[in-house]
Every structure is written in structure tokens, then in C-alpha cells.
């Protein structure tokens, strides 16, 4: 992405045409016949005589630029901004110094770890030709690497001669390109056995099964292969020397999660590694730093702001636990949102053209740009990431000095084992004196153990959303997936044994937006939909179960479309797909989406599901059409696409309730999914493949729908309406803890928002409830519901706009209810995001800590409560009591 500034130069009055979002305006001045043009950071400079044809003056220039004054010359300054996407590490759990999972709260010990801050999520597209596109970086990767070890020279020759996917411009990746693929949930340990890469897209070979070459090391060139020999060559040769005065080249090990410099065969023992080639943009990984003059440095390429000096200037070196706390508590340059960087973030600072032992004396420094202050050259820096190959008991650090190892002869850390720019791990706390002497190092190369390392805090200065112009009346697209719980989403279920459908479209939406990790709905579909439509909890509007009899949406309720109409809004409104808010024979309710819910246009099915996905009844604005054979997901997308395209420049709000993946479990059209062998009418114990195929087909059709949407001007909400049904639910939930239940398996769903009003991307732990969409959607259009809803009508909706701006959410509790039918036990549940109180009619109270008991098996009320647990229990009881008593 580039940010452009255009300058119109005139002899009398130079005129600046520019709207700064991240950067100050470029400046110009004249001195006689000379013009000086200045800007911050590196930029490409273009010139034009008539604004129709631009010529490149210079690439990646640093101001000032001087030229002769001309009355007819325009200049354009193009800053490369956010062209270096830092893809999230995907570490989703926090760990203590023993590797045990912990759930730290703000301000507590262990808070600030990698898992707390979720960044841009990985998003890949399998191109079907042996290549995979990274949708975040734009890089295109070789999907299946050769099953062989190569010397570095052989690897370069292989890349130069590779023809794949119709392209011959393949190359070895840089280290920064290579680590962009890293997934730090991985570990080669038998207990975990997960590579440091998404192996649903990329093939990883077992090194023990490769019989071409044996990777060697400096001290033992003929050693046997190991299961951790998963290193892949980069193009970054080390500019110093490692081990026994070896020339070497860096690589990332996708089996043990470390960066090391391996002997490259130019002298000394021959080293061999795997090869995975890349093609695409060649500027990925280039930094564009600006010194803000306040003790901070901003990298325009990543949007990250760094402290210019390291911890050595104030507190010295720290162990990992103190490093987390110091970063979280830091206030500098007027900002308080500093954090310890994760492994990928800190690695963006590595400069592989510098090293303390560089053969070129002019390049001898720490492996970082001199714009940063370093307490000492030979320094290592903590990251917030724990390393799976240490069973998460040790944390990752980056060597900006030499990656030293202990000399077994002297017991001193005098060997540069892996080069400046390596990435390894240290114990999170402890005494370095316990790791001294000839046997004191760590791992096969006796890596030095320091424990006390430096810290360079980071914060997010700006994101893609910050560069987007504000949209006063964005289009709004609400997508509701039927019966989709977090156990069935690849964005939430990280269990390596989970069976998950490919959903690349939804993955890409999440990568561009904000993923809510604590989103709650009602246990079944009708209550959730009514909550959204009215902004009110179920006990207020009376729909506490799938609609039947009198338990349905009534004319007394004020709905979203009715508020739009009352406000005289210019928005066009439509609803497509599943309705299920009124019951009765179809002739008597066919017009209720229009007359009761208030939709000017409706097309879809009236019931909770279709009896047959290839033979169903459709209603369009009260007109009934029977025996429809079109696949409902496709039919809904067809209708919505046609309607959206007809709106032109008029703002619109489109509600789409998909039938999938609701029963009956079926075989979707084969062109929409990749599953095979699904019977037309799945029976037996395993109906999961049919369920997943419906979700993949849904993802495929949503991709087609989005082709008709102006993504730069549209807010998109994607969510499940309740949990996964029993029979197809999977871990962490089980039958009885699924759809229809008040437990998280029935009420905790995928939920994400993307679009121009989302200023904070990644993931958030902010608590959200489906009722919150009422106020949020109206707020995007500039409508205040309080101007159109009587004051005696209680609204439970709380706008999500603060969360979308990166601020703390305003919701403290979320209420889930089930009543009015035999669809699951009646009762209510309330959660604060961690603790949850479940009150089932006729049963004893249940109280759970969701941070350690996601499937709600350990009722804390069966044992003595701690002070913290008692306080949380009392708060939940007080909230629920006050809510039902009308306070």
C-alpha cells in the first residue's frame, strides 16, 4: 500500500494538495531558482508536466530533493505504507514459566503475552496449481517443496530453474518472507507434534523419510538425521562467520521454530536444508523508519511504533516475566498502550546487512538499523512468544548481537553459533548462574543461556483502517450462519485433531477486520434473530425458543427496519433467506416479514429450516412459491446479489439469514465444496462431513456475494445464530453442551466485523452479545434509536463502536435464555466473559470458570470459592436479579 502526496509547484504560490492521515505533509521551499522538496521517511518521487503522465524521478528517496524551479511541474510523493504485513503468530494460549496454560487478567502477572494481542490473522488461497497465495503479504508460495535436502548452492540453482503454476520467476525467500508463514502454536515434541506452518495449505516433509542428503553441523558433519531437521533455506547469507569460521546462510526451522544460520558449503562442512520457493512482490520486509523526535520510531511499512532506546537506558536487562510487566506499565511519548512485541513483530527490526562480526567493517554493529539506540551491541531481546519446542516453558528471543554458544573446552560463551539475527529461546525466569560451565549451554550447540535480556516495547501506530477515509453512510451487510458454533470454525478451534471445513472467504474477512472471541447469542435461532431485530433480551419480547404458537415476534415490538423508517433514512432495506420469527400456516404468515418485522423487501424461507434442500417453499414479499429446487444457499446469494447491484450509489442495509448448515444434513452441489463420498441422505453416527460440506459451500457462495459489494464502503457482520447441533458438535464441546443448551457450546459463536469503521483489527476479548447489533447498526447510519423508541421500552443493546476503534468495550455481562418450548432445558445463564452462572429450572445453580473449563464440567459451587470467584459469583447474581426485577 502506498500513501500519495501531490504537490503543485508554481513560481508564485506553490500549492499543496494533500490530506495527511499518518504523515505530515511534504514541504517545499524556493531559494532563487532552486526548489527544495522535503518529506519524512523513504518515498518514491514522481514528476509530471500535465498530471496525465508521471515519470519516476527516484525510488525510495530520502529528502531533501533539490531541483530547478519550474512553473509547470507537478511532483508526487509516494510513501510505501503498510506494504509489510506482520501476520499474527497464531499463539492463542498464555503460559507460565512451567509451560502451564494461564489466563492472566489486565495488570496481573503474565499479562501481555503473545496470545493477549491478536493481530492480522493468516489468510491463504490454494490456487489449485501447486501454489498458495498469502492474502496478507501478496506472496505466492510453492505448496509442496521437493522431498530432498539441498546445499545452499543447489537450492539457489533449484529456485532459478523452477517452473511452477505457469511462472518461472521463483526465488529463495528472504528470512522475513520465510517467517511470515510461521505458526507459533507448533512444536516437534511428541505431546504436540504440530509444524510451525499451516499444514492444511503447505506440505511439510518428514526429515527421517528423506534419503537424499543428511543435514550436517559444524561440529559433526556426519551425524544422523533428526526429527527436528525441518530447516528451510533463505536468501540471506550471514555477513559474518559462525561456528568453526564457517560461511553460513539463515533459515527458519518449520519443525522446531528457530532461526539459525547454517553452513552453506562455501567453506567448512556442507550444510543442507529443505527448499520452499516464493514469487511475487520483492519489497516485502523493507522497513521505512521515521524518527518522531519524542523517543519513538515509527515503521511506515508495518504501522508499528517502537521505543527508540531499549530497557538498558532505564531498568537494564530483565527476565521474561518482568519484561512483560515493564512493557505493559510503560508510559512514553504520551502513549500507555505499549506491549512486549511478539516474535514476528520483533523480527521485523532485524537488519541482515549488519552484524557485530561483519567482514565489512562498515557494517559492524548490532543487526538493527542505527536509527535505534542500543545499550550494547552484543544484546538479545525478549519477545512475548513462548516456544512450543520447550513445551512453552521458555520464551523466544531475537539475537541482535551474535547468537553465542558455550565452548565445551573453556566453558565460556565465545562461539558465534547461529549469527546475529538468529531466533532462539531462554528460560522465562531463574538464575543464569545455573547455566554456566562446559555443560551449561542449551541444545545441541550449547546455546548460551542468559535469562536476563533487553526489551524494546512496541505499539500499533496505525493500521489499514486508519488509512481509510471515514464513511458517513456505509452500506451494511449482516450475514447469519445457521447452527455454527466456535467448535466448527477454523478461526476459533485450534485443536490439531479438530475436523474443520475450509472457509477461506471467512478467514480473509477476519484477517481484514475484528474477530470477537467472546461473542454470545441465544441457544436457538428465533431468539437470537429477535434479539438483533429489537435490541432487547428474550424475556422482554417473549421469544425464548424457536417460534411456535404465541411465542413469536409481535407488532408491539419496534424493529430495526421500523426505526430506519421512523428516522426517514435514505437506506434501502432488504432481508433474504431464513426468517423464522412468526408461526402458523404459511398463507397466514407469508407477509409477516413485511408487516411485522418491517422489511420493505423479503425473499426466503419462513421456517426454522427447509425439509429438503432441493425441494422447499419460498416466499417473496408475501407471494408463495412451492417446490423450489434451487439450492437455498445459492438462491439466497442470487437474490441478494441482484438486489445489491440494483441499489447503485444509494446506501443499503441487507440482512441475510442462511439456512446452512441447519438440518437436514445433505450433499451440497459438488462444485461448491471439496468433500467426497457424502450420501444424499446422510445417516449413521458420523454426519459431520455433510455438515462441514454445507459450511464450505456457504463460504464459496459468500465469496460470490462479495464480488457485488463495494468492500471499501461496506460494513460486514458475520456471525453464527447459535452453537453447533448435538450429533455433529466436537471438542471442546459435547452432546448436551451444544445447540439448545445454555452452555457455551450452545451460545458462544463466531462473530466478526470488517469495514471502514473498524479501526482495530485482529482479535478482541471484549464481551459482545447479539443484541448489541441493534445500536451498532443504527449508529453507523447516524440514527440514534432513542429518538424513535419510547423511553418506556427497555433496550439492552450496547454499541460496539468503541471496540471497533480499539477501545475497551462497555458490556460487562451477557445474558442467554431458553424458555417456552421443549428445545433444551429452560433457564438462563449470564457471563462476564470469564465466569458464568447457569440457572436451569428445577436444578441446582452452576458456576464455571470458562478460562479453564470451556465445556463447563467443573461446577465451582461444589467446592469452596476463592475470594475472586466469590466476588464474580456475587456480581453475576446481582446483575441477573436486578435485570429481572427491572432495575
Explain what the structure shows.
With 887 residues, this protein is of the alpha+beta class. 16% of the residues lie in helices and 22% in strands. It is built from 17 helices and 40 strands. The strands form 10 sheets. Strands 32-31-30-29-33-27-34-35-28-36 form a 10-stranded mixed β-sheet, with helices on both faces. Strand 18 and strand 19 form a beta hairpin. Helix 12 (632-646) runs parallel beside helix 13 (688-706). It is globular and about 85 Å long. It starts with a strand and ends with a helix. The model is unreliable at 1-21 (pLDDT under 50).
Quick structural gist:
The chain is α+β, with helices and mostly antiparallel strands and 887 residues long. It is built from 17 helices and 40 strands.
What's the arrangement of secondary structure elements?
Elements: E1 2-8, E2 15-17, E3 27-31, E4 34-38, E5 42-48, E6 55-62, E7 65-68, E8 74-80, E9 94-95, E10 101-102, E11 124-126, E12 131-134, E13 140-142, H1 152-161, H2 175-179, E14 231-237, E15 248-253, E16 259-263, E17 278-279, E18 289-291, E19 296-299, E20 304-307, H3 320-329, H4 343-347, E21 380-386, E22 394-399, E23 404-405, E24 415-416, E25 423-427, E26 458-460, H5 464-467, E27 475-481, H6 504-512, E28 514-520, H7 525-534, H8 538-541, H9 560-566, E29 572-577, H10 586-589, H11 592-595, E30 602-604, E31 616-620, E32 623-628, H12 632-646, E33 652-657, H13 688-706, E34 714-720, H14 744-747, E35 751-754, E36 762-769, H15 772-781, H16 801-804, E37 814-818, E38 827-831, E39 835-840, E40 846-849, H17 867-884
Parallel strand pairs: 27-33, 27-34, 28-36, 29-30, 29-33
Antiparallel strand pairs: 1-2, 1-8, 3-4, 4-7, 5-6, 5-8, 9-10, 11-12, 12-13, 13-17, 14-15, 15-16, 18-19, 19-20, 20-26, 21-22, 22-25, 23-24, 28-35, 30-31, 31-32, 34-35, 37-38, 38-39, 39-40
